[in-house]
């Protein structure tokens, strides 16, 4: 696979903080978003396989962290094995469904729930011994899925009667392909919020409870590491990057998913660093060499709110035209959305 060449010989071009390189191997742990970071449309993104192999080889703690509440941990083990990343275990995955179950178990262990959702959320609540309740639940829980109108009507009735409103994740839409999205749990929650007047509470990224639980898991058995040693690697500013920054984690943005470089100026929070893809992170770890500044390398303004200004409007568009982009399995022009989309979350 071309990703091998990427990991071994690809350019390393990302970091804005010179002190970060030394932390890459010796004292660090990684939380990894999946869609847009590890794979896209059932194909691995360049460097993903090599990155996980490096983590496994060097016993670097890592955990996949996804807002998709539909799959179980076992489902994700199988999916990544089919995509070409073997030897993972269920404990390598943490979903917003598990985060929702952890939340209810923490705040009210004796609660019951009416669930609008499928797969992972149902399984997570069962494992947490939170009973299903169609009559007088403590919580109405909305997750990803394709509910019937009857199910939504029942959820509406229960919310009107006073059930508390919890949603597994705030994503209004989810990518299906480069050209297609589907409504997410956030959109379903908006429907029920409009009908019932109940205000939803969102688990998953960027809720700090998600970051806290994920950190606890990835750092289990590693008393030498703290959350300050944890990197979050993600493609979405509103969820991955915001959730990391607000919890005090280092945030690496990759440009293989939803975020575009020229969009960074629209956010009050900023990633610690920007990477073209996870292949660059794999190359950095493998080489153990200092990392160049992404913005300088691509002739852009320094990170943050000035990205895309004072550079003749070349931010983002400039690097995409470079031949090196062709080495990627899903090069940036192929994955860019053609029309403006609403924010991933409120
Ligand atoms: Mg993503």
Q: Which percent range describes the beta-strand content?
A: 15-25%
Following the backbone from N to C, one meets helices and strands in this order, namely HHEEEHEHEHEHEHEEEHEHEHEEHHHH
> What's the story with the biggest beta sheet?
6 strands, parallel
Secondary-structure class: alpha/beta
Return residue spans where pLDDT drops below 50 for at least 5 consecutive residues: 1-18, 302-338
> Reading side by side through the largest sheet, how are the strands ordered?
5-4-1-12-13-14
CATH class group of the domain at 97-202: Alpha Beta
* C-alpha termini separation: 39 Å
Q: Quick check: average pLDDT?
A: 82
**Which superfamily, in CATH terms, is the homologous superfamily of the domain at 97-202?**
HAD superfamily/HAD-like
Q: Total number of β-strand segments?
A: 14
The 3D shape can be described as globular
Task: Tally the helices.
Answer: 14
Radius of gyration: 20 Å
Bound molecules: magnesium ion
Query: What would the CATH topology of the domain at 97-202 be?
Result: Rossmann fold
Topology:
Layout: H1 2-9, H2 20-26, E1 29-32, E2 39-40, E3 43-44, H3 48-57, E4 62-66, H4 73-83, E5 93-95, H5 96-107, E6 113-116, H6 120-127, E7 139-142, H7 149-160, E8 164-167, E9 173-177, E10 180-183, H8 185-196, E11 201-202, H9 208-218, E12 230-234, H10 237-247, E13 250-254, E14 273-275, H11 278-287, H12 294-297, H13 317-320, H14 332-335
Parallel strand pairs: 1-4, 1-12, 4-5, 6-7, 7-8, 8-11, 12-13, 13-14
Antiparallel strand pairs: 2-3, 9-10
Helix pairs in contact: 1-11, 3-11, 5-6, 9-10
Magnesium ion binds next to loops.
